Amino acid sequence: MTRPPFDPNLIKTSADEVRPAFAATLTVTQLTQLIKRTLEERLPSTIQVIGQISNFKRHSSGHLYFVLKDERSELSCVMWRSDAVRLKFNATDGLEVIATGHIDLFERSGRYQLYARRIEPRGVGALELAFRQLRGKLENEGLFDPTRKCALPRFPRRIAVVTSLDGAALRDILQTLLRRFPCVDVLVYPVAVQGPSAAGEIASAVALLNANSDQLGGIDVIIVGRGGGSLEDLWAFNEEVVARAIFDSRIPVISAVGHETDVTISDLVADVRAATPTAAAELATPVRDELTSDLARTARLLLRHLTHAIALRRASLTAVCERSAIRRPLDVVQRRDEIVDDLNTRMQQGLINRMHHLHRKLGAMEITVLRIAPQAFTAQLRERIAAAEHRMERSVTRNVHHWERRLNDRAARFADIHPKRRWERLSDRIDQMTRRLEALSHNSVLRRGFTLTRLSRGRGLLRSPTQVRDGELIVTDTAGGSVESRVVNLKQMELFDGP
User: Fold this and answer.
1) How far apart are alpha carbons 224 and 244 in whole angstroms?
2) pLDDT per position as a tens digit, 13-44
3) What is the pLDDT of residue 374?
4) Which is the most buried residue in 54, 393, 438, 462, by most CB within 10 A?
C-alpha cells in the first residue's frame, strides 16, 4: 500500500473528525483494529525519532527491546534480530540516538510502539561509537599492552601477506620486499578486505597461518593490511574477531591499514603498526646494501681486534722466551745450587760461632764458680756442661744430616730433569726391551742347547710322530747349523704326569 509523505498538519486531532460515521458499540478488538488502521493510513511508513534509550534489553532470541524517552514522554521500541545484527555499536541505557522505523499497534496489549530498523547515535557516527566502545573494552582486557608484543626478527626467511589480490597494497608490498630484501620468501594469503565476510576471512587467515606455520616452512612475520578508504571500507580491521586473532598470533603481526592518518583496532593490537603497506614491508625487512656494508664494517673491526690480540700474545710470548729461565734452564739450577750451598755454609758457620760463644760463656762461668764454690759443685757443673755440649753436638749433626738429605734430594730432582739423564733412562729402557725380545727369539733358544725339527719341503715344525712316516726326510736346526735325517723308527711316547 502506497502511503503519502508524512505531514503533521494533515493529522486531524478533533474528536468529531476521528469518530466513526456510525453510532455503534465496538468491541475492544474492533476499536483496536480501527486505531491500527488509522495509524497505518495517517502516519508515514518511515519515521525518525530522537530520544534517550532506557530499559534496554537484548532477548535470548536476539531481538532488542527498549524505551525512547525525552523530558515529557516515552515510546516503546522493538528491533528484530535481523536488523539488530547490523548494529556496529552496543546500545546502552542513557545513550541518545535517532531511531528509524515505523509505528504500529500491538493489538494484544493495545499499545503502540516503534519498530526500529536502524539506530544511530546522535552527535557521533555509529561506526565511530562502535570503535570507541571496542577500543575501551579491549584496552581493559590488556590487548594493547606493549609488554606482550613480540619483536620482529631482523632477518626474516618467510613473510606471509594477508590482503586482497586486487588491491594496490599487495603490489606495493611485493615491490618493496623485492627491492630491499629479494632473498625473502613471500606467501600471499588472499582475503576480502571489505564487506560482510572480510573480518571472518582475515581472522581465519591469521589463525590458519599460525596453525600451519611448520608445514609452510616456518613463517617469521605476518603482514595484515590494505590500502586507504573510508571508515566503512576499513571497518573489517575494527572488528573484534580480527583483533583477537591478531592478539592470539604466535607469529609477529604488522598491521598496515589505510594511510598514516587511519588508525584501526588491528593497528592497536598488532605487534607493530605501519602507516602504509609500503612502510610495513620496510619494517619487516632490512636493506641488503646496508647489510653488506654492516658485514664489511664488522669484518674490518673483527680483523683489527684479532690483529691486536695476536700482537699482544706474540709480545707476551717473546718476553717469556727472553727470560733466562727459558733460554738457559741450567743456569737457574746452578743459581739454586749456589743459594743452597751458601745457606748451608752460613748455617754451619752460625752453629760454630754459636758453640764458640757458648764455650766462652761457659769458661767465664767456670772461672766464676771456681772462685766461689767448692770442688763438688765444679764437677757437677762440668758434667752439665759436657751433657749440654753433647746435646748441642747431636743437634748440629742432625741438622747437618737433614740439610745434606735435602741437598741430595734437590740434586737428584735436578738430575732427573736434566736432558742427559732423561736420555740415559730412555736408553736403558730400550736396552732392556731389546734383551727381552732377543731372549724370546728362536735363535736364543737354540744357543741355550735346544733344537728345532722341521718337516721336509717347508711343511712346518715337527710337533708329533704322527706327522711323519718311516723313511721320510726331516731337518734338525741347532745353534751351529742344520742336520738332515731320515726316519727309521717311530715310537709314541706318553708324557709323564706324576706318581
Assistant:
1) 14
2) 444 444 555 557 888 888 888 888 887 778 88
3) 59
4) 462
CATH of residue 165: 3.40.50.261
Tell me, what amino acid is at 37?
R
- pTM assigned to the model: 0.46
Based on the fold, state whether residues 150 and 19 are members of the same structural domain: no
Size of the chain, expressed as the number of residues it contains: 499
Q: Which residues of 324-360 are buried (b: 16+ CB within 10 A; e: fewer)?
A: eeeeeeeeebeeeeeeeeeeeeeeeeebeeeeeeeee
Sheet holding 158-163, edge to edge: 185-190, 158-163, 221-226, 253-257, 272-273
Nearest to 266 by CA among 249, 250, 284: 249
CB 247 within 8 A of CB 185: no
Final residue of a structural domain among 123, 143, 175: 123
The answer for residues whose C-beta is within 8 angstroms of residue 146's C-beta and 6 or more apart is none
Residues 175 and 296 in one domain: no
Q: Are 301 and 295 in contact (CB under 8 A)?
A: no
CA contacts within 13 A on the Cβ side of 367: 5
Are residues 136 and 280 located together in one domain of the fold?
yes
Backbone dihedral angles phi then psi of residue 305, each to the nearest 5 degrees: -65, -45
Assess whether 141 and 228 both reside in one domain: yes
Within a domain: 492: no
Structural domain span for residue 396: 327-419
Cell for 93? Answer: 541505557
CA 445 to chain CA centroid, nearest Å: 72
Q: Which residues contact 236 (CB under 8 A, 6 or more apart)?
A: 192, 193, 194, 195, 198, 199, 202, 242
Q: How far apart are CA 433 and CA 480, in angstroms?
A: 26
Query: Residue 498 falls within a domain, yes or no?
Result: no
Q: How far is CA 173 from CA 169, 227, 236, 242, 442, in A?
A: 6, 11, 20, 21, 90
Q: How many domains does the chain have?
A: 5
Q: Is 268 contained in some domain?
A: yes
Asked whether residue 232 falls in the same domain as residue 89, the answer is no
Q: Decide: 99 and 48 in contact? Cβ < 8 Å.
A: yes
In tens, the pLDDT along 148-188 reads: 999 999 889 999 999 999 888 999 999 999 998 888 999 99
For residues 293 and 288, give the distance between their C-alpha atoms in angstroms, rounded to a whole number.
9
Flag whether 220 is in a domain: yes
